[in-house]
Amino acid sequence: MPKSATRIQQKNQAAIMTAGLEVFSQFGFRGSTLDQVADAAGLSKPNLLYYFPSKDAIYTALLARLLENWLEPLHQMNDAGDPVEEILGYANRKLTMSRDFPRESRLFANEILQGAPRIKDVLAGELRALVEAKATVIKRWIAEGKIKPVDPVHLIFSIWSLTQHYADFDVQVRAILGDTDPFDTAETHLNDVFRRLLTP
């Protein structure tokens, strides 16, 4: 696509990204087709191919945008803040992302289940480095007696599991709760769990 995109081009590109997110998060990369994405975007397949040369190009662009947003909540954990509140804040930000961006969460989960062929380098590089850096901070908080001893990396894994579950297993959660919105009480429950786990 030309560097200086017109308003129509920007609108079409955004429509393709939105459609790609909807299709890929529902069917996964292998189960999705360009025709499905084009239909969902309200464009012809040739028109779609003007903006993205392949299904892989759309999927990769979605993952790149997703990863940038996915890492931000952990970046925001303040090394100089109150340890319990900083960890709870991180958990709450992750829960909010599950509530507000469930399709993105399922897209990420689908990619991981396929062996993460397109983001393995990011997982082993940028994400690993970020987790190791925050684990070092958590170890310092433990050594200073500010939180109970926990395995820092498994703590972060637990936060991922207990928050992303609400997006990735949304159908199961809502089937059990019926008309009750899971997010009405999830934050209170998670705060209680982690506060009990961490408070000295």
From TrEMBL:
Translocase among keywords: no
Domain HTH tetR-type: 10-70
Alphabetized UniProt keyword annotations: DNA-binding
Signal peptide positions on this chain: none
Classification via InterPro entries: Homeodomain-like_sf, HTH-type_TetR-like_transc_reg, HTH_TetR, Tet_transcr_reg_TetR-rel_C_sf, Tscrpt_reg_YcdC_C
GO BP, one annotated term: negative regulation of DNA-templated transcription
Keyword hit for DNA-binding: yes
Binding region for DNA: 33-52
SUPFAM superfamilies attached to this UniProt entry: Homeodomain-like, Tetracyclin repressor-like, C-terminal domain
A single GO molecular function term of this UniProt record: transcription cis-regulatory region binding
Any one Pfam family match given in the protein's UniProt record, by short name: TetR_N
Name of the molecule in the record: TetR/AcrR family transcriptional regulator
Organism (species): Yoonia ponticola
